[in-house]
User: Fold these one by one.
Assistant:
Number 1:
Amino acid sequence: MLPFHQVVKDDFSAVNELIIKQLHSDVGLVENIGHYLVEAGGKRLRPLMVLLTANALGYPQTSGKTEHLDLAAIIEFIHTATLLHDDVVDMSNLRRGRPTANAQWGNAPSVLVGDFLYSRAFQMMVEIGSMDVMAILANTTNVISEGEVQQLVNAKNPDVTEDNYYQVIDKKTAILFAAACEVAAVLAGATPAQREALKSYGRKVGVAFQLVDDALDYTGDAATLGKNVGDDLAEGKPTLPLIYAMRTGTPEQAAVIANAIRNGDASQLGAILEIVQATGAMDYTLEAARGQVRDAIAQLQSLPDNTFTQAMRQVAEFSLARTY
């Protein structure tokens, strides 16, 4: 458990128990895949942000309620559903150092269990009974789906612009971070200014997280990452390190990268790693992430200064410093 998990350790344990409880199904395969995904662990940053935000604003200390735990589980179910669908679309076979669900059980069960997790999340939302929460999360799941489709359209297209790239990561990744903070703010009765600041904080942390993720695909190693290095290239994904390297490199260097993206070909990974380093693309990507983290931390100024907001700063810094 990372240090910033410790300040909500009891809440976190309760959320894990709730997730197991809510995975119950009369269909054994649903439970098998659900438990397989939960046991894989992961950083659980999105539900963590729900817990930290709610506690930073004094909920549940003043309300005596535990609906923030339900929201954290809901956010994790939505995230896990997107991973199941994402791995099928990307034909991924490794996640968090283990075979993906689709590699274990096949595409059809993975898609259907992803649907189960989405619908279970909405069942839990109904029980909370907040139209504001439902509106935020209904919009979020819709935008995530748009982002997935947009990324699919961008695949194997070396002409994708930096602006278009940011649109995709905002929809695919950042919006769920933003929603995690915003729904907790709604639950805790935050002021409109606090709600907007927390939404912005989450969004910026999410963008930084994805920028670093895309950088790690060209700097990490499979054992640490829990996925294959060069997967993005094999899928023909034009991420920021490649977009910048094509824009600033020589015509020959740009052609090597463009051909690899166009063909979804990772066989030139070694040469492309050299180009990415030589053009300063990695520094450019990480500096963009640093800017997002600085802006995210600045959004916390309107919140009370307590152990929970301090942990939120640490989460933002972790999104930049992480190696997995």
Number 2:
Amino acid sequence: MTADWLGAFMIGLLGSGHCMAMCGGIASLLSIGQERPSKVVPVFYNIGRIVSYALIGGIVGGAVASIASIGDFNSALVWLRIFTAIFMVMLACYIGKWWSGLLVVERLGQKLWRYVSPAGKSLLPLKHPLHAVPFGFIWGWLPCGLVYSALTWSAVSGSVANGAMIMLSFGLGTLPSMIMIGFGVGYLHNLQQSSTFRHIAALTILIYALYTLYGSVIVLSLNE
């Protein structure tokens, strides 16, 4: 496991309170038309969601790596990594409720989501628990600043595999919280909404962002 995979996992774990805030409505959608919703539906939903993260991470990581290798833009990857660190600073500020600038990025994603969401809704009501997998795959595209922050990391990963693994690690980090809320367990949600937890999570992400920024600036100065 690389440091980036571990960092992506920790961001997913610490920032998943933001995902949980959106998940209540999704949990309600999954139970539409179900007298007794299957207990495996939240599991299948999250499998689909994490697969969608890994897929887009691989696509973005591979595309940027290919452009960099063809055009010999390796220094551009360092600048992109600086951009990723700045994005993480924005994420830390959002989680700590110090500044909500990340919501502007989420609003930009709403334009694409208007075209994607009908495909997910067409699967409702779920006729079989396994149908929660494609539903989760589509819902993985829900505009989310936390996801976008992790995706900028995949962009500078250097390969398809690394980009996919970063987003897979991120998705696995969000899994405990999302599974618990899918089963109606609210303790972790209450913990993550506490100001103490939010500030600790925000400071942890901020420190990692500054570490990433420092390392990128050092590499940039050595290349000049």
Number 3:
Amino acid sequence: MAGLPALPDAEKIDAIWKAALEKMHGVRIMVLDDDPTGVQTVHDIPVFTDWSEEAIGAAMAGDYPLSFILTNSRAFSAQETEKAHEEMAQRIAAAAKKGGYGYLIMSRGDSTLRGHYPLETDVLRRTMERAGDKVDGEIICPYFAEGGRFTIDSVHYVKMGQELVPAGETEFARDATFGYRASDLRDWVEEKTAGRIQAAQVERLTLAEIRSGDVEGIAEKLAGLNGRALVADGVCEGDMRLLSAAIALAVASGKRFIFRTAAGLVKALGGIESRPLLGREELRLPGGKGGLILVGSHVQKTTAQLNSLLELEGVVQREFDITKPLEQESRAARAWAEEALQKGQVAVIYTSRKRAQVPGGPEEQLKFSVAVSAAVTDIVKQLEVTPGFLIAKGGITSSDIGIKGLGVKRAMVAGQAAPGIPVWRCGEESRFPGLSYVIFPGNVGDEDTLRNMVAGLR
């Protein structure tokens, strides 16, 4: 991007990055993901859909650079979120001590700044420190290039067309449950903590500092946080690799951090290289019939993508009417989908585009959204025809379908169907073993991304 300090040579960055990560070898990275979309930059990584002692023990013992625990906490109440994160932190700390591992916990949240922040990181920090594991600082980094999310001079931007729009001026900032006003991440921390942490108390790491390549100096800065929060700039993967190198050096020196981050830093800190996008042969299930697409997200981008998809020849559609009794509507939609799949068609079911007016505050709105998602999930849970492919659009929708509809306990991230759009390979315990389950975030892609994807899968 014009006007930004230039990156050091790519080969030099890679050498610095790999050498630094080696110093952190053996440290287990546990990524707590508040919806299933956080795996949108990684591949050949396990996702566990519960945080039982057994699941966390298996994640800790696995030979992977990192493991994801799907919390789906963006669909939780504040009380449910607090309870779940306390349980997870207790079990992770206990498993680490039992196995003799070092560990880091990354709270992976939305790159457009929605979710239970600072609640989740506050609970994690408190619980870890009660277990005797001091937290030396909090690193906040919502960079996610595949979705067009960049942080420059501590201001977080969302790419809209060819324009970078400050996050606080987007539709995401007007979210009914997790809304905010600030675009400067220091101000955002002050806003979300209701002034408990003042913007002036938040440290910052600029692009100029990152691109200096002085990872030892940055590591010293991180080591000196003394528990404070730091917001980090980022506009490309090289920035994340240099930041990760500095984090690794600080961790190797005995420091421990808590993270609130989008998917970009997760990939870099895990040492994960890029791989080509998945093709038709990797995404279609042999013997499956037709394809099923379920759309729950209501953001403007999703609606535009849906409208583009419905113009594609051979696609059949049905609205899931949220004003009708949800159980009745679910049964009718499932019967319709089974008939379409038997014919080899691509069946699209989408929830009413107009949001229901729910009496009460954000918590009541969230409860209704969860009830709608559960009804849509029942379509998959009761489905008697195996689809050739399955795509879910939206965070709550895709989580419910994966866990409750498909019955996935552990999946492997196969890769991405398109930039920022992850694919789970369903395990043997699931309803459709081997199915490629495409998790399409509501806020990723351009207007024709979904249409182009489906055209290539038919």
